[in-house]
Amino acid sequence: MLNHSLSPKRLALSASALTVFGLLSIGAHAEQAPAMPQSIDDTPFSSEREAVIWRQDELKDLERLLRQLRFDLVNNQDARGAAPRLAELQEKATQAHFLPAFIAGTHGGGSDAKPEIWEEWDDFSAGFIDLEEKVSVLLEAAEQEDYRAATRAFSDVGLSCRSCHRAYRYD
Fold first, then answer.
1. Where is pLDDT greater, at 81 or 9?
2. In 108, 129, 144, 147, which residue has its Cα 20 to 30 A from 16's Cα atom?
């Protein structure tokens, strides 16, 4: 049973602990974000154009993967059949996978990316943290074969993608 009558001193200590935890938590997320690649030398790509094409192809593949997973998890309720695609989603829907392809200034000329990506790098990269967290919830629901939770989590993954696209991609 919860004790709702905390003393002022204990309440202050709890608030301080939450504040410190919150700051440490924010700091941990900030440290996870890879630095913005400033040039092609900071990436595994041989040209900026290659990076743009790669990220477009990978994002389209991710979209196709999500459509397949919707069929597997929501329509067929088949978590075991979805397992290989869920593993691929967990691997690809990450900062580490995508951010190296967002080299500073690679918007315009064949790119759907808005310049706000580089102006708001911390917010942009935080969107991938949000996506990773939502994918984890989806994986857990699928692992437990909780299809109602998987449907909600799948919807949350889609909302995470759409919110980033609205802010950072030309339609």
1. 81
2. 129
Quick check: 12 pLDDT over 70? no
Q: How many CB atoms lie within 10 A of CB 99?
A: 21
**Are the beta carbons of 149 and 86 closer than 8 angstroms?**
no
At 105-120, the pLDDT tens digits run 999 889 999 999 999 9
Q: Find the helix packing angle between 147-168 and 48-69, rounded to 10°.
A: 150
Q: Would you list the DSSP string of 71-126?
A: IIIIIS--HHHHHHHHHHHHHHSSHHHHGGG--TT--STT--B-THHHHTHHHHHH
Question: Distance (Å, rounded) from C-alpha 94 to C-alpha 131?
Answer: 7
Question: What sign has the CA pseudo-torsion 66, 42, 125, 16?
Answer: positive
Beta bridge partners of 169: 113
Nearest to 93 by CA among 53, 66, 111, 70: 66
